[in-house]
């Protein structure tokens, strides 16, 4: 193994990846907090604006569910299409965590949808309540964690192919 290849195989790339992920999540969290703290341009209690908010909410929910199931499919594809390769636990823990987080994201998507139905059936008049906002945030951030762990698994798998 040459020196250049040895340096490429060091785990510093993984540490940098996780630091970059933490910084990205922190920045997204701050931006989301800033956007959510801004006042509405119109009263969200009026029916047309509430209908638009529900449509947007359902669109986001559907998109995140589609991304989550696609991520699980991609993980299955990577595991199935490796000829003569068995994975050790130290190689698969990011994929296992990714699957757990994506599963949690799908669950929070379901809870989120149920809570929006509760708001509509009980004529609450706004989606800006903790009952709706908490599962929405959990839905997004657990999917984001699943994506990060999946990306780590793919990077590690590719580096093992190059280094091993």
Describe the structure.
- It is a single chain.
- With 164 residues, the protein is an all-alpha fold.
- The protein has one domain.
- 81% of the residues lie in helices and 0% in strands.
- It contains 5 helices and no strands.
- The chain has helices at 3-8, 12-37, 47-80, 89-121, 130-163.
- Helix 2 packs antiparallel against helix 5 (130-163), helix 3 (47-80) runs antiparallel to helix 4 and helix 4 runs antiparallel to helix 5.
- The longest helix is centred in the middle third of the chain and has 34 residues, at 47-80.
- The protein is elongated, with a radius of gyration of 20 Å.
- It starts with a helix and ends with a helix.
Radius of gyration: 20 Å
Number of strands: 0
Treating each run of at least 4 consecutive H or I residues as one helix, how many helices?
Answer: 5
Low-confidence segments: none
Question: What is the chain-wise order of helices and strands?
Answer: HHHHH
Distance N to C terminus = 10 Å
Principal-axes geometry comes out as elongated
Q: How does the helix and strand content classify structurally?
A: mainly alpha
Mean pLDDT, rounded to whole units?
79
Overall domain count: 1
User: Which percent bin holds the helix content?
Assistant: over 70%
Major β-sheet annotation: none
Which features characterize this protein?
single chain, 164 residues, elongated
Set down the secondary structure blueprint.
Layout: H1 3-8, H2 12-37, H3 47-80, H4 89-121, H5 130-163
Helix pairs in contact: 2-5, 3-4, 3-5, 4-5
